[in-house]
């Protein structure tokens, strides 16, 4: 039986702990890519409707994060980089996180439907379900392809933003999806190379755990090659132009070069320099995605093809 006094010494939750449940770093990427998708769409949207749409998409992204933290509390308690999160640290209970996630999901979907359109709202609801159920509850603990398939959840926001403006899907929004979808595996696998022990202890079947680091290095390089044509193809559509195309070509050459350097690494060399190359590629991958969407925004304001 649980001692009711066991929680007497638990640290008291602060406002920042509830914000942390929403994974603000991940939410910032959701907000930015959704904003870009909405702005570059070929339909003008009233600024207030645009603001509300991005706000509710962000709220839905935060709700997904809370549901993920609720279900993954056991894993987070084992992994070194996540032990300080609100639930494993004892500052927020799992029940609170679940309630926050469900309530915010309902608010986000309903309000997006009222603010923009119900197609975008249904798309947001599916995205929350995909991340919280299909990825978090199933793929993450079942297959080393968890990041590949589960990456779709993080790839939907620009499509939702586009749908808020147009009420539908197009080749441009599908290519924005592909840009994030094929970027996700090399981004996370680069992280997994120097965080393998965390995933091993937590029992998460990350590729580094199930197939080893050598296979992961090959997969990273392969995905940088697959990613390049999709990101460049986006520059040849109605939302592209010379600025985006130039930025994309340079960034893809650098990403492929980073993937090649990771591929050529032996484990002894990587261990000796504490995975310096892998860490640099991981950090660059963050800039890679941000600069692609920033280039889309700049190209839109200047004018494209």
Automatic annotation (TrEMBL):
Its EC number is 2.5.1.141. GO terms for cellular component: plasma membrane. InterPro entries: Protohaem_IX_farnesylTrfase, UbiA_prenyltransferase, UbiA_prenylTrfase_CS, UbiA_sf. It is found in: Cell membrane. Carbon 2 of the heme B porphyrin ring is defined according to the Fischer nomenclature. Belongs to the UbiA prenyltransferase family. Protoheme IX farnesyltransferase subfamily. PANTHER family: 4-HYDROXYBENZOATE SOLANESYLTRANSFERASE, PROTOHEME IX FARNESYLTRANSFERASE, MITOCHONDRIAL. This is Protoheme IX farnesyltransferase. It comes from Paracoccus caeni.
């Amino acid at each position: 039986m649980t001692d009711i006094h066991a929680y007497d010494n638990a640290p008291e939750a602060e406002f920042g702990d509830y914000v942390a449940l929403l994974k603000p770093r991940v939410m910032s990427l959701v907000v930015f890519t959704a904003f870009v998708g909405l702005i570059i769409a070929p339909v003008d949207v009233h600024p207030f409707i645009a603001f509300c749409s991005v706000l509710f998409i962000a709220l839905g992204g935060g709700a997904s994060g809370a549901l993920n933290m609720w279900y993954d509390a056991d894993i987070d308690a084992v992994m070194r980089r996540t032990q300080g999160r609100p639930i494993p640290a004892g500052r927020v209970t799992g029940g609170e996180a679940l309630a926050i996630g469900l309530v915010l999901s309902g608010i986000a979907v309903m309000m997006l439907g009222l603010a923009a359109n119900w197609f975008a709202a249904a798309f947001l609801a599916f995205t929350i379900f995909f991340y919280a159920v299909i990825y978090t509850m199933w793929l993450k603990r079942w297959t080393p392809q968890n990041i590949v398939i589960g990456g779709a959840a993080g790839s939907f926001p620009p499509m939702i933003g586009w749908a808020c403006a147009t009420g539908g899907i197009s080749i441009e929004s599908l290519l924005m999806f592909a840009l994030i979808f094929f970027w996700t595996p090399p981004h996370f696998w680069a992280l997994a190379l120097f965080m393998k022990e965390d995933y091993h202890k937590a029992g998460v079947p990350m590729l580094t755990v199930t197939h080893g680091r050598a296979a992961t290095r090959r997969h990273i390089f392969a995905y940088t090659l697959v990613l390049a044509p999709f990101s460049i193809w986006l520059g040849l559509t109605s939302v592209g132009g010379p600025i985006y195309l130039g930025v994309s070509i340079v960034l893809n050459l650098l990403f492929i070069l980073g993937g090649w350097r990771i591929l050529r690494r032996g484990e002894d060399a990587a261990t000796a320099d504490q995975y310096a190359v892998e860490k640099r590629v991981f950090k660059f991958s963050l800039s890679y995605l941000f600069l692609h969407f920033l280039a889309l925004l700049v190209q839109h304001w200047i004018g494209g093809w």
